[in-house]
Amino acid sequence: MTEVRHAPLAPTRTQRLPPGGEIDAHRHDDHQIVYAGRGVLAVTTSAGSWVAPATRALWIPAGTGHAHQAHGDVELHLLGLPRREDPLRLDGPAVLAVSPLLRELIITCTRGEDDDGPEQKRLRAVLLDQLRISVQQPLHLPTPSSPVLRTVCDRLRIDPSDNRTLAELGREAGASARTLSRLFSKELGMTFPQWRTQLRLHRALVLLAEQTPVTKVAHQCGWSSTSAFIDVFRRAFGHTPGKHSG
């Protein structure tokens, strides 16, 4: 990441980010909930990237340097929470499932007056309860540290449709499949197939937000067929990509 700007308090507000819009790297002294009511938002830190469509929200712990990028026309809801209000007890960012109730709470809290009145306090209390029971989603794409693994991952980031095996990618990078497999597990906490699927799902969300047809998304992200893509997407997000893009 580039130099991280310090903005002490996380804002509580609603704002629009146009397609491709960015918020440069920064950090806050308090926690932040980031929710895209429309479009897809990507958040990047030194540890990797997270991506969230409108059915997900991002939790960013206090002190975490992060940058935002919009894919599609994003309606961004930003909600700051004091350090003492820490319902998740997490050291790093996370993607959370957003129930209909949690969605309405986030929207109401970010569109209303930022005050400490009784009504706002009651809303915050219910919101914190909902966050505590929110299910974390495996939408983190970690960033490798070793040069050889970074070479492989960067190659696939450029072209997620690259279907070469780990052994074939390793020959280009100068490492054996066994070495790379061990590095994926040690550095990224997942297998090579798991990481590649995460990468493809990230790219698919971005392409869908840009109104790319589902069949074309499946092809560009490397699935063998549109039906295979739809099946993986449904299992990851609970609905079809056609519903997401629509």
In a few lines, what is going on in this structure?
The chain contains 9 helices and 10 strands. The chain has 246 residues and is an alpha+beta fold.
What does this structure look like?
With 246 residues, the chain is α+β, with helices and mostly antiparallel strands. It folds into two domains: 5-140, Jelly Rolls (Sandwich); 144-245, Arc Repressor Mutant, subunit A, CATH 1.10.10.60. It has nine helices and ten strands. The chain has helices at 100-111, 118-132, 147-158, 166-173, 177-188, 192-209, 214-220, 226-237, 241-245; strands at residues 5-6, 13-17, 22-27, 31-45, 48-52, 56-60, 66-81, 94-97, 136-137, 140-142. Strands 1, 2, 3, 4, 5, 6, 7, 8, 9 and 10 form a ten-stranded mixed beta sheet that branches. Helix 3 (147-158) packs across helix 4, helix 4 crosses helix 5 and helix 6 (192-209) runs antiparallel to helix 7 (214-220). The chain is globular. The mean pLDDT is 89.
Shape: globular
CATH class of the largest domain: Mainly Beta
CATH topology call of the largest domain? Jelly Rolls
**What is the CATH architecture annotation of the largest domain?**
Sandwich
Terminal-residue CA separation: 33 Å
Query: Could you spell the SSE succession in H and E letters?
Result: EEEEEEEEHHEEHHHHHHH
Topology summary:
Layout (H helix, E strand, L loop, with lengths): L4 E2 L6 E5 L4 E6 L3 E15 L2 E5 L3 E5 L5 E16 L12 E4 L2 H12 L6 H15 L3 E2 L2 E3 L4 H12 L7 H8 L3 H12 L3 H18 L4 H7 L5 H12 L3 H5 L1
Parallel strand pairs: 1-3
Antiparallel strand pairs: 2-7, 3-7, 4-5, 4-6, 4-7, 5-10, 6-8, 8-9
Helix pairs in contact: 1-2, 3-4, 4-5, 6-7, 7-8
